[in-house]
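A reminder from the course coordinator: this example appears on the midterm review sheet, so study it carefully.

Given structure:
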């Protein structure tokens, strides 16, 4: 394709032609939540405890048309939000989106490559970088640029593509490039749609598009983002961990942890499951990677050490902590709700009673005293992301990574 500058210009051209994501603008706050954009939920996931501060500085790096930025602004009303992107057309939409949604505090937008984020002279407590790094000619350079402006204890959420589940996409991308060497995005979309309309119905690329992607790809902007991209790096677990090791940040976990549960794949065979669970962590991830080639992306958190880690192993610390109902549940206070991933959930009577007693002021010990529940139930509710905890005092006694 050419120099990194040529690639940058081609990426910019794509997103100026088709700003992404194409979600329509609406008046008022966006519906629902994504817990990955809610600082207290993110902090609890990464450290085990609620954050001390909510008046933090958040960066949305490669904000596109601002769908994520808008959530970040509404879900974190005390935070200062900065967003940047290469595409001026995407930024114009993002600006209009946040204006119409009535964000609690204005977002500052910059037309800037994330490679130059240091020029802002800022440090951030939370950086969201979704669907961006894999479009850089050198994603590790992009990751390092973001890492360099992360405050100590700061957290970074990243989403990048996975190779195995995007195999058919890569093949159709190549076919489109062969037939449309001009690299004109509009012609690329036409060629891609023509191919999918005329290939045999049982063709694997057609089948995959129909079963997996057609819903979102009715928008030309989504189709272009998927099939007409001038620059894409796809990862495996191994190359992903190599990417992470290009910085001094700590890996704090995938932000879709259920996907990485070995039980999901091997749960019906206790021997295989036990053998798999005996592997080192990275090999366990790799096993899921190779056994589930449907994986289309990786989403995960990194943190700048020292990041506190509250494991709550000590009963005394746990009893002194202050529990609150998990902030990202739909339907609370009802025993029938949707969990943080919008899955239906029916609480049994003891769990409902215990959560109802968590008022954000009383300690775990007080709540147990009031409800007669067992400490193990509080632990379970914390592990299931149904309650969050504030340590006693200001900092508790965490280990850190
Ligand atoms: C797939 S979109 C993702 C948008 C948004 N993060 C989301 O998830 O909805 C990728 C965005 O990254 C931007 N981008 C690509 N390379 C960039 C760079 N080096 N610096 C800043 N933005 C970049 C593109 O212009 C585009 O708007």
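Designed residues:
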């Amino acid at each position: 394709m050419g120099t990194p500058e040529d690639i940058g210009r081609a990426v910019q051209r794509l997103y100026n032609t088709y700003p992404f994501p194409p979600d329509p603008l609406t008046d008022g706050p966006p519906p629902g939540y994504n817990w990955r954009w809610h600082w207290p939920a993110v902090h609890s996931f990464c450290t085990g405890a609620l954050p001390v501060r909510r008046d933090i500085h958040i960066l949305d790096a490669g904000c596109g048309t601002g769908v994520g930025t808008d959530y970040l602004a509404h879900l974190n009303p005390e935070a200062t939000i900065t967003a940047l992107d290469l595409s001026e057309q995407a930024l114009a939409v993002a600006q209009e989106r946040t204006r119409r949604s009535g964000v609690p505090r204005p977002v500052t937008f910059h037309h800037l490559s994330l490679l130059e984020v240091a020029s802002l002279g800022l440090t951030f407590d939370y950086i969201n970088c979704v669907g961006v790094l894999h479009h850089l000619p050198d994603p590790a350079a992009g990751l390092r640029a973001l890492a360099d402006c992360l405050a100590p204890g700061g957290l970074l959420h990243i989403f990048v593509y996975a190779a195995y589940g995007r195999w058919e996409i890569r093949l159709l991308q190549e076919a489109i490039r062969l037939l449309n060497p001009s690299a004109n995005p509009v012609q690329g979309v036409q060629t891609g749609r023509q191919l999918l309309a005329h290939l045999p119905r049982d063709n694997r690329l057609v089948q995959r598009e129909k079963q997996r992607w057609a819903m979102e790809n009715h928008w030309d902007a989504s189709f272009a983002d998927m099939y007409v991209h001038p620059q894409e790096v796809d990862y495996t677990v191994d190359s992903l961990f190599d990417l992470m090791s290009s910085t001094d940040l700590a890996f704090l976990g995938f932000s879709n942890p259920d996907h990485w549960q070995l039980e999901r794949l091997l749960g019906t065979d206790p021997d295989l499951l036990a053998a798999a669970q005996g592997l080192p962590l990275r090999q366990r991830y790799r096993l899921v990677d190779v056994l589930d080639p449907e994986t289309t992306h990786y989403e995960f958190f990194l943190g700048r050490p020292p990041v506190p880690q509250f494991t709550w192993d000590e009963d005394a610390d746990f009893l002194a902590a202050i529990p609150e109902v998990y902030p990202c549940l739909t339907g609370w206070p009802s025993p029938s709700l949707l969990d943080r991933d919008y899955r239906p959930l029916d609480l049994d009577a003891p769990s409902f009673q215990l959560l109802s007693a968590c008022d954000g002021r009383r300690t775990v010990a007080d709540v147990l005293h009031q409800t007669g529940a067992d400490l193990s139930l509080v632990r379970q509710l914390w592990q299931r992301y149904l309650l969050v905890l504030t340590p006693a005092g200001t900092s508790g006694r965490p280990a850190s990574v």
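The chain is about 40% helix and 15% strand. The CA atoms of residues 28 and 272 lie 50 Å apart.
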